Amino acid sequence: MQRIIDFFRQGYDLPFLILYAFLLHLVLFLYSNSYPVFLDADRADDRLYKIENFNSLPGIAEKIEYLSAHGIIGDYYFQALVYELFNENGLVLFQIFLALFSYYALYKMAFLIFKRRIYSFFVVFLYMHFAHSLVFPHQLITEAFFNPLIIISFYYLFRLLFEKNKIYYGVLASGLIGLANLIRPVTVLFPLVVLAIVFVYKPKFQTKPLFAYTILNFIPLFLWMSFIFFQTGEFGMGRSGHDLGSNLYKRVAAISRVSDEMQQEKIKAIYLADAEEGRLKVLEYFDFAIHHPLAFIKHYVRDTFTFFFKTGINRLLVDFLKITPQSTENPTKSWRKVFDKEGAWYTLTFFAKEYPILIAFNIVSSLLFLPLILLSVGGSIKILLDKGVSPIIKLSISLLLLLLAYLFLISQVVEAIQSRHRSPAEFAIIFLFVLSLWYIRGSINKNRASFQELYSIKLKAAYLS
Predict the structure, then answer these.
(1) Beta carbons within 8 Å of 151's beta carbon, 6+ residues apart
(2) Is residue 304 in a domain?
(3) Is the pTM of this model over 0.85?
């Protein structure tokens, strides 16, 4: 026991974590060379096609024209740069490096709150063993860049809040989340949430670094949209098959497929038939939700279940371990079709027969994940209601909880939510889980100390009488 205490006291835990994570990903890297997983991610083939086409263009003018016609730049360009220099293996190693740096940042962020190495160690150790954390660095997927940038940005945001209001922490935090917005612009409004919640808990906080964080966040995306405007005459993020309008169109089409025939025809006639190039506007989508609430809610419930309770373990089982026959349709893509047509119970029993090992692992992982996320959210709310907890701890919890809620709400614009849409907030879930355990342990010790103090008073009173 003393050796374990000395291990943390002497600061060996962080180097151990980084070395262990590196060796773990090195094993996965060597394994993936024998059993390729690089292109098993969502839209990986399309992304590789864009990367290779972009890198093959001879001049700057051609590359500029290509960028303006293929959606938001970070969807493929950042990975294209690394891919051009170091090819596939080099890109995977670079993504592993990003993951390791995010583990370091997460550890330091946790230490700002817990002030104890063992809790920081526990946060990172749990997070690095999540399926998405294990698999994404080895795949051609935007989350391999996006998720580490979000974690590192949060680390500098916490440094800004916990320390001396130094403005360069705000610049670093906003620069990183601004870069992440060029990959997936889902977090572009989150700094406004941060600004609002900080003034709730720390009204005397210096405004200059906080406003720097909020405003600078918008600059990278604004510059990109300006580039698109000068190239195409349209002020936007760039058109592609997965931009906002396209996603809304696909979502309404997916919802219509589970409606009866009369409803399907009506939805197609009003919302899909005249949509420009397979796109819907936001107001048109809201109009659809208002006029077709039951179909909308059914899709919403399924997405809610997927976001909060589907662990993503199929990334490991299907993409890495290949436990399903290659000749069959990937079950992670087909279960939604069965669910929409036949319902939850039929889907579960059908796939239990077809893929018993896969379903067994999914059930076990969901049963383990359920108490984790419930304790994370429930424990956090309990801490927020405790008047004895410092405002800075409550502020930290609120930001992490709001990141989870924000990503859930913003993900409602995609065709169908997947567990990967939750992955940028998984560090927050683990953080809140460990924080809740820490709070429970402190409450138990406090109650025990209060009981012992009361008991000793009673003994003393009895003795004196």
Answers:
(1) 102, 105, 106, 109, 427
(2) no
(3) yes
